[in-house]
Amino acid sequence: MAKPRQHSFKIFWRTSLPLYGYINTLRQRLIHRTGLLLNVSGKAMLDLGANETGPMSHSDRPDPEAVILANGEPAASVEQVLDALQGLGIEHQTTSHQPLYTVEQAKSVVYEDPGAHTKNLFLRNKKGRMFLLVVEQDHIVDLRGLRDRIQVTGGQFAFASTERLGHYLGVVPGSVSPLALINDTQCKVDVFFEASLLEHEWIYLHPCRNTHSTRLRTGDLVRALEVWDHPPRVLHF
């Protein structure tokens, strides 16, 4: 007598498990390497190096003190960034804290003074052109529509690799911020700001390390970027 049909379902389910596991593993690796989260509408979000199951382990990240730029020079340290701001006569205050790898971790830090907090996306297109997109902390960016909004040629945007991040911004995942543009002396990275960020008087940014947050006036940040030959372009979302 033939076996009940429910057995065929069990067989299908069992044979499908390896395929399901393989797809899920690929998905986890994508999230782990890029922090990219995709939803059904095709929107993408980067949470300071976060992945779906929590922050990347510290052992998976390059040593921030050992990053070498594409020009062969060592990347700027926290002290060098702050000295550069001081040299421009920019008022700033810096707070030390535990390493912050995700937006949720960043929100757990209590700051005494008000200021905007950001999400920073280091992107490239198919031609290798690089972009730093700086948006409000909770903003979800639609990468599919970003190219048309920025109006550049070269194909769709993707998150740049950790190696490229180190070579041009001189930081490791979790430490990306506009202050890292001090390292891009070859001016290979274009920077774009969400318009609403510039309406805040003060802003908090990592000075090339996610163990520190520096508060400075937004207008002074723009002035510093202009001195470093990275005048920001403004995007209205």
Q: What's the story with the biggest beta sheet?
A: 5 strands, mixed
Give the tally of β-strands. 12
CATH topology tier name of the largest domain: YbaK protein
β-sheet strand percentage: 15-25%
What CATH first level of the largest domain would be assigned? Alpha Beta
CATH superfamily of the largest domain: YbaK/aminoacyl-tRNA synthetase-associated domain
Question: What do these coordinates show?
Answer:
This protein is an alpha+beta fold and 237 residues long. The chain folds into two domains: 6-34; 56-235, YbaK protein (Alpha-Beta Complex). Helices cover 30% and strands 20% of the residues. It is built from six helices and twelve strands. It has a five-stranded mixed sheet with strand order 8-6-7-9-12. Strands 5-11-10 form a three-stranded antiparallel sheet. The chain has a two-stranded antiparallel sheet with strand order 1-2. The longest helix is centred in the N-terminal third of the chain and has 29 residues, at 6-34. The chain is globular. Residues 6-17 and 30-57 have low confidence and may be disordered.
Key attributes of the depicted protein:
237 residues; 6 helices; YbaK protein; alpha+beta
Tell me briefly what this model is.
This protein has helices spanning about 5-35, 80-85, 105, 145-150, 160-170, 220-225, and strands at about 35-40, 45, 50, 55, 90-95, 120-125, 130-135, 160, 190-195, 200-205, 210-215, 235. The protein is of the alpha+beta class and about 240 residues long. Strands 8-6-7-9-12 form a five-stranded mixed sheet. The chain has a three-stranded antiparallel sheet with strand order 5-11-10. The chain has a two-stranded antiparallel sheet with strand order 1-2.
